[in-house]
Specification:
Elements (H helix, E strand, L loop, with lengths): L1 E5 L4 H13 L2 E6 L4 H8 L7 E5 L5 H9 L3 E4 L6 H6 L1 H22 L2 E7 L27 H19 L4 E6 L2 E2 L11 H10 L4 E4 L5 E2 L2 E2 H13 L7 E4 L5 E2 H11 L10 E4 L1 H5 L14 H5 L9 H14 L1 H14 L1
Parallel strand pairs: 1-2, 1-4, 2-3, 4-5, 5-6, 6-11, 7-10, 8-13
Antiparallel strand pairs: 9-12
Helix pairs in contact: 1-8, 3-5, 5-6, 7-9, 9-12
The protein binds uridine-5'-diphosphate (UDP).
Length: 340
Amino acid sequence: MRVLITGGTGFIGSHLAQAFLERGDSVLVIDTASTAKVLDFRNNPAYAGRFQYVKGSVLDYTLLDGMMRKADLCYHLAAVVGVEHYVDDPFGVLDVNINGTQNVLRAAFHNDTKVVFSSTSEIYGKSTKVPFKEYEERVLGPTSIDRWCYSTSKAAGEHFAFAYAKFGLPVVILRYFNVYGPKLDKIDRGRVLTIFMGQLLRGEPLTIVNEGRQTRAFTYVDDAIRATMACGLVEQAVGGIFNIGTDRETTILELAKVMLKEFGKNPEDPKNIVFKKQEEVYGKSYQDIDRRVPDVTRMKTILNVQPQISLEEGVHKTCEWFKRTENFREPYAAAALEKK
Ligand code: UDP
């Protein structure tokens, strides 16, 4: 099978590319940046001739159309994602996530290629009806709060996907819940886990927003990838929405403690944690979500995927990877030197 992955050099995209390469498929990747995450695929003799990377944007319809022609299945993962972007660059978020998605769907329709669209758990917004079910109400804040532009952009993408489904395009929508693992962003950036990772590598205390009682369902990347592949491969998935996550609900404080233990630190020692007010960390244009937990019944029953990796095991694997990876040790070493 020939699989096209937009955003295929990113965290989830690179894991997905590898999983399809391992299965024996060919993988085409379109992304604005080639990263270290996929460099070794080109040099791997086992993948010889089956991996192709093209530098480009999903805003380029002609490029997309040409690549779609060569694909049997398309995963649309390219997006502007990350809290810092929602707050600093709402234009980029809306432009790429809405117009780019529209281009992907149009090219897929033109070439009759099935599309799996990666949406997000942000879709549910601040709904308090946990666990979130795929077909329930969304609750979002006002448009003056930039944070909601990401959720809105992905919802527009989902609507476009359903609109194309009405024209006959096979589409599947998946919504990720806090996926983490090796190759997650650089330390200090983006997500709570990588922020904590940078702090732990430098021997600093962990910064917890408010009291750390807010919860997430941290999903290990291998579990997410099995479910993502099934979205493209299981026939009954077509036309549906799937939460991709785990049913274990974890507070941010609990995550901090698991990570502190991984680094041999006492999680009960108050010196290891600093509590910060939300505004101090994110400014005014942000609203945190108290509980974000998926109902994964559809993932388990229709996709037949059960989450297998516990938080402790996943955090262990992730920390081990960050500790030994040169790329990620470098900024830590530079920062440590600066401090001296
Ligand atoms: N968070 C925290 N300390 C940090 C960064 C984030 O306590 O240094 C919290 C944040 O307030 C949120 C949760 O961790 O409640 C998850 O944040 P993340 O940025 O990973 O993404 P989200 O799940 O909110 O999309």
